[in-house]
Design a protein that fits this description.
The structure holds 2 protein chains of 2 kinds. By secondary structure, chain A is mainly alpha-helical. Helices cover 67% and strands 5% of the residues of chain A. Chain A starts with a helix and ends in an 11-residue tail after the last helix. Classes of the chains: A mainly alpha, B mainly alpha. At the A-B interface, α1, α2, α4, α5 and α6 of A face α2, α5, α6, α7 and α12 of B.
């Protein structure tokens, strides 16, 4: 029998040692700088950020480099990594298009061996060797592209409602923020239960299914149904949190702007388009960046809601399984790098476009 | 109320000529109707979770939507742990709760402590390279965790610390949450420098200024970050999944998964799973409701001023 203390105390001991070591190190860094004749102010500042610098080197920079190296190897934890060059990437990017003779034809008949269908556009079919990766990538990207603008619009709507001088504002805010406080583990299970065969959602919509004479949908196994289901889940999770942030932005817009526009005869739409949106653009930008990064890295939902092979899953979970279930550490690292580049591309796009639409007030104090 | 209507009328005069009271009330009705609609959408799943957790097995699949189970089965909350004990004898409620609290509190303390030091260094002192480093720190937000996960796992394996709490706790002392640093830096920047200068003239050193002057001043954001960090670490699933292998060392999030994957595999026992989910959600919700005002203000401060 292992007592709880046996597992807590060693960790606690190392925790205290690391903390003391860190403080000592900060002091040494400070002293060494003074010795080199650096001013007290600069020396103190640098000493204070030491914890982050070490953390960045050990837990970010080194692992990123190591992961890049691993992505060019084959590694299963037991034998040392074996250099394979760009093989992992070649395998992932093995994509072949073929033409179907008739739409009902099985794609296997036209695709080369080891290639399986990923897309079907008209009479063309695209196959890949790593078809799970591409199906999940497609699933994750469409999810992101749908959920981000819808979530943004929804939360903007709620924020504008809350901005109408409603009574009990703090109560509404607390209420709408609640879903993003709940553990994702709990909400993922909850939604799996609600969307399950005998779940509340199918029970409520049963009359409508009858009316449309459609079968009871299997939400997470049918490709057509899975995306809307995950979309609903994600909207429920974030719209409240984002609307609270947008509300704070709305409250910061000077009322005079609206009054001046009204005197000039501007209607509701023009006020919204030419005052609200520009004044709110920094908050919108912040939410856009944060929700893009989050949407491309959904993990818990995928871990707790099994989907069928045809649906695919969230790419982050797929990579995790590739690394730690099938132990293809090299292949998983290559996939992780592709995901990293996708996220960087998306954020770069948002940052570039922000110059055109994000408006910082001229009177703002200089940004530090 | 009359005053409010009067006030609204004045506003309306600016917006459109000759508004009637009827129009004002129609508008209010629509607004509150929409708000109540949103509230219902937010609340129904939460209520359904609690309601399911109080149902017996037979009440789960009645084909009807019943929010109040009759009779209620609060014994689910105890039974679920008995069931877990039957397959893993050491997974008691006290043990799992202890594990979760141990991880959460150590990580939370480390995050707040290190983030406040680093934010202080990034905001109140001028030194060459500061702004570049700060930008680098912010840009690490974009890095997906998965890209560092494999090498990090290998590092902990080489240190022989897999299946210990180490990877989940003391790395927090290295300011692993850039957003917390960002939030606190915003707050530090808003403190007038005179306060610090006065303390220094009175003979305080940097550590004393930080501890006795700066920390008390930024208490609102400390509380917001404490709530945020408690919630994030309590809810954390990814890292425990990677580093913990022995079931008696699991935090709640992994215990829920363990139940799902073992006892609930063939026929999902939703009443028990929802009982566990409710147990996991309750402390986070309680803390959030207690500290909601400071929490929401703290979050807004970072986002709006950012």
């Amino acid at each position: 029998m292992e007592s709880a203390l046996d597992s807590y105390l060693p960790t606690l001991g190392r925790y205290v040692l690391v903390a003391i070591g860190l403080l000592v190190l900060m002091y040494v860094v400070y002293r060494v700088q003074l010795w080199f004749g650096i001013k007290r102010e600069a020396a103190t500042g640098r000493a204070l950020v030491m914890p982050w610098i070490i953390g960045f080197l050990v837990f970010n920079l080194f692992p990123i480099g190591a992961s890049l190296y691993l992505s060019f190897t084959e590694y299963n934890l037991f034998k040392p990594p074996e250099w394979v060059g760009t093989d992992n990437y070649k395998e992932i990017f093995s994509l072949k298009a073929a033409k179907l003779d008739d739409p009902d034809q099985r794609s296997r008949e036209v695709l080369p061996r080891r290639y399986r269908e990923v897309w079907r556009v008209g009479s063309y079919v695209v196959g890949a060797k790593e078809e799970d990766f591409w199906i999940s990538m497609k699933f994750t990207l469409t999810y992101a592209v749908l959920t981000i603008p819808l979530g943004l619009m929804g939360s903007l709507g709620v924020a504008m409602l809350l901005n109408q001088r409603v009574k009990g504002l703090s109560l509404w805010r607390v209420l709408f923020y609640t879903p993003s406080i709940l553990p994702v583990v709990a909400t993922a299970l909850l939604w799996r239960w609600m969307f399950s065969q005998n779940g509340i959602i199918n029970t409520i919509f049963d009359p409508i299914y009858d009316l449309l004479s459609m079968e009871i949908p299997r939400w997470f196994t049918e490709p057509k149904m899975a995306r809307p289901a995950f979309l609903i889940i994600s909207m429920w999770g974030v719209f409240g949190a984002n609307s609270v942030i947008l509300l704070a932005g709305l409250k910061g817009i000077p009322q005079e702007l609206y009054e001046a526009a009204a005197l000039d005869g501007a209607g509701e739409w023009r006020k919204f388009r030419h005052i609200t949106i520009p004044m709110l653009s920094p908050s919108l930008f912040y939410i856009l960046v944060v929700s893009t990064i989050a949407a491309l890295q959904v993990f818990e939902l995928a871990a707790f809601i099994p989907t069928s092979k045809e649906v695919g899953t969230f790419i982050n979970w797929l990579i995790y399984r590739e690394a730690f279930d099938t132990r293809h550490m090299g292949m998983a690292s290559a996939m992780a790098w592709i995901l990293t580049l996708v996220i960087l591309a998306f954020t770069a796009l948002i940052f570039r476009s922000s110059q055109a639409w994000v408006f910082y007030q001229g009177t703002r104090e200089e940004k530090n | 109320m009359a005053e409010l209507v009067q006030k609204r009328r004045k506003d309306w005069l600016i917006e459109s000529p000759g508004p009637s009271q009827v129009r004002f009330y129609v508008r209010q009705t629509i607004i509150y109707g929409l708000l109540i609609g949103c509230a219902i959408i937010v609340l129904i799943p939460v209520i359904w979770m609690i309601s399911t957790s109080l149902k017996t097995r037979d009440q789960l699949f009645t084909g009807k939507v019943e929010f109040v189970p009759d009779p209620a089965a609060p014994e689910n909350y105890a039974d679920v742990w008995e069931k877990l004990n039957s397959i893993s004898p050491q997974m008691t409620f006290a043990r799992i709760l202890g594990n979760t609290l141990f991880i959460t509190l150590l990580a939370m303390f480390g995050e707040i402590f290190s983030a406040s030091l680093v934010a202080y260094g990034f905001s109140r002192f001028r030194w060459r390279g500061r702004d570049t480093l700060f930008l680098i720190m912010l840009s690490t937000v974009m890095l997906p965790g998965i890209v560092t996960r494999v090498p990090a796992f290998l590092m902990w394996r080489d240190l022989k610390l897999i299946n210990t709490y180490d990877p989940l706790t003391w790395p927090s002392l290295f300011a692993w949450g850039p957003l917390y640093v960002f939030l606190m830096r915003q707050f530090f920047l808003s403190v007038p420098t005179e306060i610090e200068e006065a303390a220094i003239i009175d003979g305080a050193n940097t550590a004393q200024v930080y501890w006795y002057v700066m920390l008390p001043l930024i208490r609102p954001v400390l509380l917001a970050i404490a709530v945020l960090s408690f919630q994030a670490n309590w809810n954390n699933f990814q890292s425990p999944l990677l580093y913990l292998t022995a079931s008696e060392r699991f935090p709640l999030a992994l215990a829920v998964r363990f139940f799902d994957q073992s006892l609930s595999k063939e026929a999902p026992q939703w009443n028990y799973m929802m009982a566990m989910s409710t147990m996991m959600a309750a402390p986070v919700l309680a803390i959030y409701f207690l500290a909601q005002r400071q929490f929401i203000e703290g979050i807004n401060f970072g986002a709006v001023k950012g």
